[in-house]
Amino acid sequence: MKFEDMLDRTASWLKGSGPNSDIVISSRIRLARNLEKFPFPHWAKKPDSEQVLALAAAAFEKTPELKDGIFLRLDDFDNVDKQFLVERHLMSNEHAIRSSQKALFINPDENVAIMVNEEDHLRIQVMESGFDLDTTWRIMDSIDNRLSEVLTYAFKKEWGYLTACPTNTGTGMRGSIMLHLPALVMTRQINRVLEAIAKLSFTTRGLYGEGTQASGNFFQISNQVSLGSKEEEILGNIKGVIKQIIEQEEKARESLVAEHREMLEDRIWRSYGTLKNAHIISSNETVELLSMLRLGADLGIVVDVERSLINELFILTQPSHLQKFENKKLSANERDVKRAQIIRERIGG
Fold it and tell me: Which is nearest to 223 in space by CA: 191, 176, 165?
């Protein structure tokens, strides 16, 4: 696997399959781990950070589950390349901005990514398509166990895994589900749903993670605290909440089809028509229109566009991807032109 080849590859978590994949885009589990006897990254001196990088790289090489992946030193990348990795949901924006003595590991399917020296020494991420936390956890648990054989984690019996942020202490786990909830938004029920889950210690973010607002009717929902709970308890709580949200979205979709079908179909076909024919289109408009097109595909109203292609377009139409396609920096207007061109080519405009 080479970094240069990533533009032509599609991450496995975007394939649009798995349980409840008409509503759930992906399931993600992230573990925070730190190495014993090393300061947390924000307090570490350069020699310590470099030693953590070396230890991590060596551990990844010895881990069968991480075979054929790539280890990227972020110091070597320009801003476009780093944002390209952020847009692919492989690392945080914080990791891209402050990239000195930091690295990113990516496996060939892009469903496993490990940030080195972000807020914690290791931020291990596994993503799977659809609502499939069980498979996601099996992969994660296997990787974590293997790494713990060659790395000594910072761990206290009374506290669990020690982390830079106290809310991650304990299991160090955060589970996150990316949901597409257009019907709850259109029927104006979404605020009630989000307020209810906030009271259960869940947090909501946008399509591109921490620090982003919901757009295109996409919501990332995750647990806030891991201290005092076992991994299975955390996953069970997430499953229970997400199942209820899925049920409410399904009912809202049924209501829209039964009571407002003409309005719904009009919005879907207008969105499809604009995407097929536009020659200039902004990032925000693209996300909103692709959301409606995806709803149309999921409801069987639009039958000639695959869900996996729509998922892929959410990533490929982001600014750094557009500049990677052209192999040069683009102005905002040039990006809007290139974005429209890619959409027309992909969906047959």
Answer: 176
